[in-house]
Every structure is written in structure tokens, then in C-alpha cells.
Write a structure and sequence with these properties.
Number of strands of chain A: 13
Shape of chain B: globular
Number of helices of chain B: 0
Radius of gyration of chain B: 13 Å
Distance between the termini of chain A: 36 Å
Order of helices and strands of chain B: EEEEEEEEEEE
Largest sheet of chain B: 7 strands, mixed
Oligomer: heterodimer
Largest interface: A-B, 25 and 24 residues
Number of strands of chain B: 11
Radius of gyration of chain A: 13 Å
Order of helices and strands of chain A: EEEEEEEEEEEEE
Strand content of chain B: over 45%
Helix content of chain B: under 10%
């Protein structure tokens, strides 16, 4: 199974400041035939279901604010919130869809400092 | 707007069975593959099972293989998860989610979830 790890476990950022979440996979998520990274990011606000933010490691889902961006390739990925807003308080998960079983990272909790 | 609505959760004794449903609206159901994902109380997300667009391809996590059966009825726009031999560790909120094209894709629309509690 592909193991996903995230760092940090939690972070607190001031409103308007940048938040950076890292995700690492135990094997490469880059599929050579299409040069795509099979990595998604989800946001889960308290009491809510997960919401897709980013797929193919850097493609923003329709309707997601452009302060959210994804980067990285291979085994190392980053989700950046460029200017934290109050509504961004949530747990963020990365997920690989390169191989079965599909696996998620343990999550990173983002709070306001 | 695509909407998914799960139902069928509840309290069940260990060893019991339960069938979850996920009704879709606002989407051509037959155009999407689907997965079930669960979340134990206070824990992270765990993929459970996937079914392809036609229903012919199914995949499951080892933790539920042989106990859970995923199926779909495209004429009713509904996804199912038949759960047998339930254990305490199956206690979770179960979400259904659409996946464009197949298993190796992101999950773009999620339902609000239905809660399963396995306890005597």
C-alpha cells in the first residue's frame, strides 16, 4: 500500500498570512505515460464532509478560491493557502489515487493564531 | 448541482448487517464511478470500496473484503453498500463520493454522510 504522511500535524496561522502543508508518499505518484501526479487535496471543515480542493497535484477544482494552490511532483507535495481566511479553519487531507487501495494522509489541522 | 444523499446508517450489534444507500441527483448517474469512504469518530479518512460506471468493476479495502459488497442501480440513481459481519471498528461516518472516469481519479462530489455504530 502507498503510505501518505503529512506535516505538520497542526498549525496556527494569523489571518492574512500564508499556511503551508506538506504531503509525502511512500512511492512516486507520477504516472509517466501522461506526466500527471495522482494526488488530490481535500478540506474538511468541522462537522462537514470533505471537499475537493486540488487534483492532479496542482489543478484547482472549479469554485475553489485562488488562494489555494498545490505543487510538487513524484513523492513530495505541498498545499499552500496564500492568505488565510477565517473560513479556512479545517483539516486538510492529501490523497493518492495512483494505486489501489486509495489512501489518505492523516490530516493537518489549520487554525487561526 | 450534483447532490449525493446517504442513508441507512444506525446502531447495529457486532456480527450484524446493514445496507447503506447513496441517492444521486443533478447528475447523469451512469456517467460516474463511485466510492465509499469512511471516517471513524475523531479520526481520518479511509477509502472503503469503489464501483465502476457499469458496475462491472469493484474494488475494496482489505479491511472490508469479504464482508462488504458495493453495488449500484443506475436506473434508480443509487449506490449501495451491503455490510455483513460488522465489527466495532466499522463504527464510522460513511460518505459516498463520485469519481470521474474510474478508480484512479479524485473524488469530486461528496455526500453529507451516514453514521454507523456497531455496539452491543
Amino acid at each position: 500500500d502507498i503510505v501518505m504522511t503529512q506535516s505538520p500535524d497542526a498549525l496556527a496561522v494569523s489571518l492574512g498570512e500564508r499556511a503551508t502543508i506538506n504531503c509525502k508518499s511512500s512511492q512516486s505518484l507520477l504516472y509517466s505515460s501522461n506526466n500527471k501526479n495522482y494526488l488530490a487535496w481535500y478540506q474538511q471543515r468541522p462537522g462537514q464532509p470533505p471537499k475537493l480542493l486540488i487534483y492532479w497535484s496542482s489543478t484547482r477544482e472549479s469554485g475553489v478560491p485562488d488562494r489555494f494552490s498545490g505543487s510538487g511532483s513524484g513523492t513530495d507535495f505541498t498545499l499552500t493557502i496564500s492568505s488565510l481566511q477565517a473560513e479556512d479553519v479545517a483539516v486538510y487531507y492529501c490523497q493518492q489515487y495512483y494505486a489501489s487501495p486509495l489512501t489518505f494522509g492523516p490530516g493537518t489541522k489549520v487554525d487561526i493564531k | 448541482e450534483v447532490q449525493l444523499l446517504e442513508s441507512g446508517g444506525g446502531l447495529v450489534q457486532p456480527g450484524g448487517s446493514l445496507r447503506l444507500s447513496c441517492a444521486a441527483s443533478g447528475v447523469t448517474f451512469g456517467d460516474y464511478a463511485l466510492s465509499w469512504v469512511r471516517q471513524a469518530p475523531g479520526k481520518g479518512l479511509e477509502w472503503v470500496s469503489h464501483i465502476g460506471i457499469s458496475g462491472g468493476n469493484t474494488y475494496s479495502a482489505d479491511s472490508v473484503k469479504g464482508r462488504f459488497i458495493i453495488s449500484r442501480d443506475n436506473s434508480k440513481n443509487t449506490l449501495y453498500l451491503q455490510m455483513h459481519s460488522l465489527r466495532a471498528e466499522d463504527t464510522a461516518t460513511y460518505y459516498c463520493a463520485t469519481q470521474p472516469e474510474g478508480l484512479y481519479r479524485h473524488m469530486d462530489v461528496w455526500g453529507k454522510g451516514t453514521t454507523v455504530t456497531v455496539s452491543s
